[in-house]
Amino acid sequence: MATNLKPESKRDEFKRYLEKSGVMDSLTKVLVSLYEEPERPGNAVEYFLERLASGVPMKAEMESLQLEINDLRKKSAQLEEENEALKKKLEQFEPSGGSSMSPGGGEEGPSGSEGGVGEE
């Protein structure tokens, strides 16, 4: 009798493992969707594999997305450098404190354009 309990307990343990990991739920959903198909697919195994894999990103897709992330990070860094360089160039042309760009915030008057002061 002890030999009968051991395989059953292994089977029950494996079943619990499949249920906890979500395998049973995924398999059930795919089987139900296959059952509900109006026309049976020519290759049921292929249908099954496609449906199972639909929620899991494929390796090629993951690699492609990782490359895209790396490219976007490089582009972002380049744009940040360009932005800093342009800010420095802008500072060369602005009076101290950037008053010529902001209305009413400079020593030259409320609009920063009265009488052409500092434009020579």
From TrEMBL:
* Cellular localization per UniProt: Nucleus
GO MF annotations, alphabetized: transcription coactivator activity
Q: Which family does it belong to?
A: Belongs to the AMY1 family.
Q: Does the keyword Translocase apply?
A: no
Q: Which keywords label this protein? A: Nucleus
Main subcellular localisation: nucleus
Checking Gene3D superfamilies in the record gives:
6.10.250.1060
Q: Where does the record place Basic and acidic residues bias?
A: 83-92
Compositional bias (Gly residues) at which positions?
103-120
Q: Which domain of life is it from?
A: Eukaryota
Q: Which InterPro entries match?
A: AMY1
Kindly provide the name given to this protein in its UniProt entry. c-Myc-binding protein
Query: Which GO cellular component terms are attached?
Result: nucleus
Q: Where is this region: Disordered?
A: 83-120
